[in-house]
Amino acid sequence: MKLVDKSCREFTNVLSSKAAVPGGGGAAALVGGLGAALGGMVCNLTIGKKKYAQYEEEVKEILRKTEELQEDLLKMIDEDAENFLPLSKAYGLPKNTEEERAEKERVLQEALKIACEVPIKIVRTSYEAIKLHEALVDKASKLAISDVGVGVQCLRSALISGQLNVIINISMIKDDDYVKRVKEETDTLVAEGTKIADEVYKKVEAILS
Amino acid sequence: MKLVDKSCREFTNVLSSKAAVPGGGGAAALVGGLGAALGGMVCNLTIGKKKYAQYEEEVKEILRKTEELQEDLLKMIDEDAENFLPLSKAYGLPKNTEEERAEKERVLQEALKIACEVPIKIVRTSYEAIKLHEALVDKASKLAISDVGVGVQCLRSALISGQLNVIINISMIKDDDYVKRVKEETDTLVAEGTKIADEVYKKVEAILS
Questions:
Q1: What does the record give under GO molecular function (chains A, B) (predicted)?
Q2: Counting CB atoms within 10 angstroms of each CB, which of A52, A167, B63, B174 has the fewest?
């Protein structure tokens, strides 16, 4: 059974256990998916309302994109779990001889890069979804404006959580070029993304008060 | 079927729809539940490890509490949906005569307070769970330290999201004493809770680098 098909209660219970998956990466992907879904909900509550007719086409386009990102993030829950398998296997390899140690290190280095893939995608996708909330906040039905705030807070959390899962993996990767490239990309997206998320949240707060 | 028993995929899909529930409150409760669960996971990965034997009893106690808060937050998903019903009913009442308008206003004011109940509890419970992460960060297995960071980010998001759902309801409540009391409590918990969450996150970052 896929993790994404588990009930919310079951997923949360397995998360809290010692089980190797889901871990922080899977939780981050789910929280990001919820954030994208909240953006979609706000679009759905805005579309068809006379008062917001002038934004109708733009909001429909934002909805199309939030649906795509939501689906991407939900898929990452299980993808992250699958990508953890090679790493888990690598840790189990023997290291009694010089050859075994060298082989283990080679396999481990490869597995670490695989384990990094989904967290990097979580950072990218959460950033994209935050940008969509930025585009949405001025065009959204005022009746649903608090949900733009909740959506952007979920995505801010997914963005930073994705980065934490990148960091824990690259801290053991010895390919300096790879580490530098990944670190630069994710650091930039997190710095920009949290800034935008905080601005969107402030707008929501201002509209609510 | 309870919302908490829906699959992660189904819950996220219904969230993105126009359906009245789940909304931002239910999403916040789930994200809070995931945050508490991550704290529990870190406890479970720390307990029994020789290296952290000195903290064993404290970590077991933290686990007991995260499990309780996780369960509380998961229950709030459906409780929030139930508490939305009176409000939804109140909006539907007629307002043709002076009497009808007065009655509608009376029922609405009551329903708004009911709708506030779970969001207030989400703020309180997320705050409690953030405090548990604060107690855990220095006693947690270093192998799971990134998950303390993910947990605290989820709870930070749930805390602020709970507050947003308080604000949108109290903005229409005319009982000034109630509004003042609720606002003071939640504002204080959010200000303190985000501060603590950010400190815990910085500690995690420092340990990771």
A1: catalytic activity
A2: B174
